[in-house]
Structures are given as structure tokens and as C-alpha cells.
């Protein structure tokens, strides 16, 4: 074991206000094209019947697993887990086979069917902003979060912090830190006031999926995930934008008549 | 976890990060040259420059990351009390405001019919001459009062006001009556302070009345509220909608619209009749201590239950919890409080609740009503006194609205006097950084008033709807391309400065007003050579150079002496829960209940209110925000929608007394059955806005104009609509 400290995110669903500053910050920082995104803020929507309602949002991006399935699945070694936390993808090595997409239990890596995504890459996902953390800055999403729903630090400290928050407000939080052990542990830790399953997080054991699947059937993904639906990635992003365009066209069609007059006299 | 990086780290980081960049231009542009001189940019014109956000009026401090003369990222400035290192989504998207492909980059003169969108490009000289000639023609023929001037809350407003007062017109339209007149008038009358500041450090109980803090984001305050809730403070939130703020509240009360003041009056009743207030404080500092019990007698929780629909036991409990938190309780003053004619009374009741808890001025108290000496310590260019103005104001202040301050005005009333020509006819309209076509209620009426104008000119950075209907459009630089006057916040004065070169021919408001002033023969009111000279004159007495302020981002201000004596800026020097001023003007001296109108059978209250990704009517063309905003739909309670045979996503026709709009339905549990809600600021008419044009519908098409006689506030939720399948 090296002495290198492991970076991680801690996300607190009880604090997130769905403002999407993190999404905008990520898109600007990483120069993400207008029809793509690396972060999704989604969740359970509004649950219950008026006036007994509940709501929760969750920031979805790469979990930065300790022992990442994407890396194990990649036949050309385009993925590495850096010892200080981030799971990184190298577009120059990628051959576009999409094994990583199938392997990831969280459905994170996404693919552009038409062309290379960014700088000729086929696959895209959250990188933990190495260009920032390497010079001592927080990732863009964390740095801007107005409620500190997203924080960044050393994994060991954040785990302690997460357990302390749960202990301080036992009625508020589910007594579990998601990512502490899931899939062998992740560098994205989550605490929540609603069950993790409702947020679309898969129930995973402490053993990375690949070890199980290698054992059982050589790589078939055993479940369809709620999260995967949220994260059908580029497709989802592009679909949402299409929908907006459609809505816009419709709005234009139904624009109310402009009031006549406003003839100028000059 | 707090941000641990200081601004110095950012600057250091900036230097390190750009080492790998290739050298950019041969001739360094002026902005970069200046920034390099102060060490903010390196040899490649890259680095971080401190400035100030303008995506809303909270004005967070920003560190703009510049690479090769282009702004590539904005960070919250950890040194600024409004950002503390964070920015909201609008602030993060700010560079798309500068790099909006729809920017107007040269002065434009209309060649087609108004609203047709046909303009020709022209030089600044010609454009300014046309504007000045038209304004002088109107002045000569009809008097200076025939020119209407309007502008919205911004840092160059003092110079805008110079232009209008020097010109000699009393007709000043601001957005204020569409926004916070009720709050400011009530707090000015009660405390002598427009907007008291809030302190969350020790807060234990927070009451917010429709202040949707988690969506109408004020970065630092949203953060403070979030931390207070996290700490375990009780947070009671009144709103007919289940907003993101409601979802974070300890207790959400979906109160009937227009009845907030009944709820609050009953709280006051419980507190005073059970003597739960901070009596020592009240006796010493409050006018009304003796009579309040009697005055509030009728406002029992049982009475309020009938009106608000909130159980009497709930109101009683909340009142007791509020009182128990003593000066660690905070009844938030709110912000946009233009909801009902009685919103002024709601604000008076909030002001009273704070007075009763003794949270004002008490050490550790959560509300601070100290006089903020705004701008004190900053210099200004010398100028002659303004000419005397004897003409009546067309918005009815003060002849129709005696208690509304001149500064606030009653913007929405202007159109009626324009249309009737009484007491006199207005002929010209000068608009800067404002979009009345979308912001005023009843868009048809605004367009009709525009039709009465001989001449309209608009200053903006994009072709907003108002520019689209103007005769001359003057392009302003974006907030990342220009200087504005320094802004004092606490003990510092912060700078907005250009971080990149202006695009095209765009110019700062400081430059435009001066040029225009000179052409109007009012040059004496603009004694500054250029923007930097204006700022230098502001800094003159502080003994700090502009260069230092530019690299640091702010200037330290001299400490203001506190006299030790606690007095309020009211006629009595005390907190006036009982107000002689109100009484003398013929209104109730006590906070009081006024029954608002209710929708007829089958109609709904039309609610409006912000989303976190947009600011009013000006950001919808920002592509980054468009990307991450929800489609603006009409919210309707899902059960009611089902009863009406309407499904989520259906196109519906919404009809009010003044207009009709088509929009898609959002069937949701998150709203009272008697209400519908529409996000404001959509439905642009200008085809010069390629992203925003034709997307969504405008609530101003539907809003009926109602004005509160005391504060002059527009009642934006007093419009009732019917909804059917389109
Ligand atoms: S910036 Fe923070 S509060 Fe806003 S959506 Fe992202 S995680 Fe949630
Ligand atoms: S709250 Fe948002 S838009 Fe307003 S000044 Fe701050 S960052 Fe800018």
C-alpha cells in the first residue's frame, strides 16, 4: 500500500437542491458540447399525494470505483484507476468496443453513436477533473455547489464525516454510507434521507461485479438498473434536447397573435 | 466542508496551470495589457481576474479564468461575502452571456415597422446623434417630462439617474414595484431601513413566507440557510407550491394564496395575548407596545383557520415555537413580495414578528436593521445640482400613491397615463437594461403604450423583446467586458472590471451615458474622462490605487463609527409597529387584515416564481442555461387535471381577463388544487433571440394589472385563469 492519499466525493442527498450549478460548472470546465453532459441531477421526483410529499435529488456521475469493472473489461487497457482516486479513460487507446459500458454496474460510461464524443473519444464520463485536483483545486462541480451537498476531500476523512453526520441526525439519514463497500468500495460516497434503491443505486455486494461475473458467466450483466435508465447517457441527453426542440417548435406554432399597431410616428 | 482555497491559491494555481499554454496574440489587447501590468495575467494573457457576477442582483464575487484572452471558466471568489467561493448555475453559465451568438455588436437603427425586426447597422456617432436629436425634439416640443426613462437595478444606475434628473424628467420606471415595493415600504415605515440583513449563525427558528431560497438563489444566503437546516434549525415555509425550498423545510404549509397576513396576524395575536414577546426590548424600542393586544384581539388562530385553511392548533404551535426561540428566531422579510394587494400587510406583520422576538439589534439576534451607509466613503465626480422638476409623475407618485418613495415608483401605472394622455402625454421612452415588454403585467397594454411613443431607444447586450420594438438599439458591453461603478458590501468596495476585450462595437453604460449627456448639453453631469477615471474618483479618498483594487478585487473602506445609541430612522426613532405616518395617510396604523379577491368557480390562482436556472426575463437566451433548464410548463394539481380530463404533457389554453396563452401541462402533486403556476420570463417575441424565441409562454400575457394603494406594488398572484385543452 502506498502512502498516496485517496481523493473522493461525498454527496448528501438531504442537502442537494437540484440547482444544477454542478452540471453547468462541469460542462464549462470540461468544454462539454452543448448536446452532451457528464453529470445528471435526477432523483425520485415528487413522491406522495398532496400535501404529504417527499422529494430527493441525486447527482449521478462516475463512482470512481476502487477496483473498476470498466478497466477490467477493457481489452486494450484504455482505463486506469489512479492511486489517488480518479478512474481515467484514454481515448487514444480506445477501439470503441464498448465493453466498459456493459461492464460498469452503474451504467456510467456513455457512447456517441455518430462520432467520437470529445476530442475524438468514443466514450465519455466524469474524470474527477484531474486538471484541477492535480493543482490543488476541487473538481468543478464541488467547487461551486452552493449548499455543500457535494464535497471533496480524502476518502478516509469523508467516510468519517459521513458517519458523523448520520450519527448527529439519526432520524434524517438512512444509516449507511453508499460506496463504503459497494462494488469493492468507490471514491464517490453517498448519504441520503431516502432509500438508495429509490435513488436508482444498485444493491451491490463488497465484491466487484467483474469478479462475480467472471466466475459465473463471463461478463453478462445480471440486472437492469434504475440508474442505467437515467444514464443511458448521450442518448438520454440528446433525447432531452430533442424534446426541448420539439416543444419549442410547438410553442412557435401556437404563439398567440402579435397585437397589431405600434406604428411609429418618428 | 468549507472551501479551503484562498484567492491567493487561485492566482498561484493560475500561474502554474497556464505554463503549458502557447503564446497567443502578437499585439496584446488593452484589457490583457492592463491585467498583465498588475500581474493577473501572465505572458500568454492567461490567469484569474477578480470581478463581479451580473447574472442576478446578488452580485457574487467572481474569479474569471482567462486563457489567451478568452474567458473559459468562472469561479466563485472566496474573498467575496456574497459568493464565498461558490456560484449558482446562472453565475457558472456567465460566460455564455458574453459569448451569446445573438449579441448585438453595433448600434442599430430601425428601418421597418416596429416589431418587424428590420434594422440597419450604424456608427456610434450617428446612433447617438439620432437619440439625442429625438430626445431634444421631444423636450422642446412637450417639455422634458414627456420623456420616460426606465432601467432595472444595476451598478451604473446612479449615472442613468443623472441622465434622467439632469434632463429634467420626473418619469422614472424601475422594476421595483413589480418586485419588492411591499417589503421595502413596510420595513422603511416600521424600521426606517429598506431591507434588513439576516444573520443565520445562531438561528434556531426560520419562518419564510414564499421566499423560495433554494430556487431564487442568493448564493451566500442559500448556503447559510442550507447550513442552518443541516444544523437542525427549525424551518417553517409557507407556499402554495411544493418548491425545492418546501422539500427542505421542517414544516411546509401550503397556505391559501393571499392569506399569509392572516396566518401572521394570528401568530402575533398568540404571542401578545400570552405575553410571549421580549417585553423588555419591546417596551424600550417599539411604538405600539401598549395598544397591540387590543389591536390584534380579533385575529385569533380560529379566525385565521377559516381564512387560511391552516388548523388553528398549527398556527398556535408555530407562534409558540417562534416565540420560544426568542432572538434566535427569524421571520424572513422576503424579496419579491408583489403577490396581492395585501402583501404590504403581510410585510408589516413580518416586521412586527421580528420586533416582538427582539432579534433586531440584540447581540446574536438574527435580523440586523442597522442603517447601512451605502456608498459612504466612496467619492464621486463633482456635478451641478439637478434642475427643478415641477411636472407630476406619470406613475402617480406621490399624488395618487402618497407613501411610495420616488425611488421605488409604480412602474405598471405608467402605461395608463401614457394611454389616456392624462395628466399629460408622454412621447419618448429611454430604456436601459430592462425588458418592460416581458416584465410588466398585461403585455398587450405595454405594446399599446409603446405604440403611443414617437421615439423609443433601448440599451442592451442582446436583442431582447424591448429592443426588438425600439427605434434605436445601443449595444452595451457584457459584464465580463466592462467596468461599472464600485459596489460597497460591508467594509469593502468591490470592483467589476473587464476580463476580456469588448466584442464588436459594444460600449459600457458609463461611456454611453456620458456621450449622450454631452450631446444633450448635460456634459457637466458626467465629469469623468473614461470608466477608469470614474473609478479613480470613487477611490480618491481611500488612498488606494485603481491598479491595486483591480488585482485584489476590492478596496477596504474606512470603518463607520457607530454612535452606540440605538435609534431607528423613523419619525419616533423607534420601531413603529403602530405607525402615525400610515394613519395620517388614511391607512390602518396597525398591521391589519385585508381580504383579497378569490377566483370564481372553475378558475385558478395564477402563481409565478423563479427557477434556479434563470433570472427574470434576461437569461433565457443563454444556451448553457437553456441546456439545463426544465421546459416551462403550466403546473396543475394532478388530481384536478385528471378531473378535468387533462393529461400530463397536454397542450392547454390558459385564459385570463387580459390574455390567452397556450402551454404544455405539468400534472403534479406539488401544488394546491386551486392554483396553477407558470415560470416567468419565457415566451419571447424577439426573433433576434435564436435560443429563447418562441420557447414557452409569457405570464405577462396573462397578468392583470392591480396596484396596492399603499406600497404601489403590483399584485402578481391576483390574476385568475381558466384552463382548457388546446
Ligand atoms: S450544485 Fe450542489 S445543490 Fe446544486 S444540484 Fe449540484 S449537488 Fe445539488
Ligand atoms: S446568485 Fe448566482 S446569478 Fe446571482 S450574483 Fe451570485 S452567482 Fe451570479
What does this structure look like?
The complex is a heterodimer of chains A (266) and B (726). Chain A is an alpha+beta fold. Chain A is 29% helix and 17% strand. Chain A folds into two domains: 200 residues, Alpha-Beta Plaits, CATH 3.30.70.20; 59 residues. In chain A, strand 2 and strand 3 form a beta hairpin. Among the domains of chain B are: 199 residues, Rossmann fold, CATH 3.40.50; 171 residues, Dimethylsulfoxide Reductase, domain 2 (3-Layer(aba) Sandwich), CATH 3.40.228.10; 122 residues, Barwin-like endoglucanases (Beta Barrel). In chain B, the strands form seven sheets. Chain B has a seven-stranded mixed β-sheet with strand order 5-4-17-16-15-6-7. Chain B has a six-stranded mixed beta barrel with strand order 22-26-23-25-24-27. In chain B, strands 11-10-9-13 form a four-stranded parallel β-sheet. The longest helix of chain B is centred in the N-terminal third of the chain and has 19 residues. The N terminus of chain B is likely disordered. The interface between A and B is large, with 61 and 89 residues. One iron/sulfur cluster (SF4) binds next to helix 1 of chain A.
